[in-house]
Amino acid sequence: MRRLSIVVFGWWMGLMALSASAVDLPDFTELVEEVSPAVVNISTIRRVNDGNAQFFGNSPEMEQIPEFFRHFFGDRFPRGGGVPREAQSMGSGFIVSHDGYVLTNNHVIEGADEIFVRLVDRRELKATLIGADAKSDLALLKLDADDLPVLKVGKSSNLKVGEWVVAIGSPFGFDYTVTAGIVSAKGRSLPNENYVPFIQTDVAINPGNSGGPLFNLDGEVVGINSQIYTRSGGFMGVSFAIPIDVAMNVMTQIKETGSVQRGWLGVLIQEVNKDLAESFKLDKPRGALVAQVMKDSPADKAGLQPGDVITGFEGTDIGLSSELPHLVGRVKPGKSAELNVVRNGREIKLDVVIGQLPGESGAVTASPAKAEARGNALSLDVRDLTEAEKSQLQVSGGVLVTNIYPGPAATAGIRVNDVISSLNNHEVKTVEDFNQVVEELPKNKSLPVLIIRNGNPAFIVMKVN
Predict the structure, then answer these.
(1) Which residues, including other chains, have CB under 8 Å from residue 369's CB and lie 6 or more apart?
(2) Predicted TM-score (pTM) of this structure
(3) Which three-class secondary structure state does DSSP give residue 53?
(4) Which of 50, 137, 381, 384 is catalytic?
(5) Distance CA 226, CA 105 (A)
(6) Is 384 assigned a catalytic role?
(7) In the prediction, which pLDDT does 57 show?
(8) 157 a catalytic residue
(9) DSSP 232-296
(10) Active-site residue 137, yes or no?
(11) pLDDT 10s digits, 289-302
């Protein structure tokens, strides 16, 4: 009897613990009821011509291709015999003003001929594209309507990792789907997304959620769901949202000027690892290592040099190099900013007048040419750059690697056609400069080497035995 009592008591305590845990979990019902009217479904129509239709035509083989594969292969599996058709896409968005302004992702409406917005009351309104910004993946739409429901805008800067967040959108076309999770990380940088410090969450996001709002528990928009990390095409526990602070800044600029201006330094930077930190006399890996300073750029005029490590911007410490573009991009062109820089192991401060980010920049590749063999302690052959190569690379000098042999350079990862422009913090303009620096290199120490590979400068670390 006693044993049975213990079992029953244990079961009861476990049930009570579960009940207590359930009470502590957030209840999203009121939040969803309050905010849903201002969340919208966005559909687009794009008129395309099936250029390959004469190959596939309306053959039985074409009809047997599942819609699943048509989605992934797109226009390579057209439906008609060279006749224009309408391609449709779907996403989400939300209303930010009573007079009909709507925010969504640029990739939701990109290339659309017509845009339609469907409200929670099943009204469908045609939208006008006011402006879009590809770099932040944001678009601003306008509805011809008044007295629309709007969402409260919060502060993404106040978000904390571990905080509950809620997403509402139309994954796979299922309108007003609610998912919840927590903030997994802040300030994430993604490939080719240098100007958005993404909010990472574990909220279930799938195709169709793009452009939809991310809420905190106060019902305030703190982000715009934009991307997912996936190997299967579906949600895998990692999703990314554009901070609402970034989105509102972009929206304001689009409304006021029709375009978006971003701050620009004019440097190419790279991460600082343990070996680079040692070679540049840093106490630990931190900051953004300047690999190249563009001629006549704000950084050039301020006196920044290759090999400088930017450790602070306007009072904000730079831990990772990816943090710097976010901070610079938010500064209005023409304003002055203070940089904390470590140069040759000494900390200095530089004032720079922020410029405007140019529209595009082209990559330059060094041209291979006949090598003039020059052996040295690094076990590689180099030659001087031609005037044409200097002009193409926009450099005043450097040496082109023409042959690599087993040795320090090969171990460090230097390749044929790399251009060496600095060695152990000494500028290298000619083969004569290079040979002189090589003769004086210290042994068994981490040495920084600035190379240009496929038009992109980068520091690598090398040790001479």
Answers:
(1) 383, 386, 389, 400
(2) 0.66
(3) helix
(4) 137
(5) 7
(6) no
(7) 37
(8) no
(9) SSS--S-EEEEEHHHHHHHHHHHHHHSS---EE--EEEEE--HHHHHHTT-SSS-SEEEEEE-TT
(10) yes
(11) 999 999 899 999 99
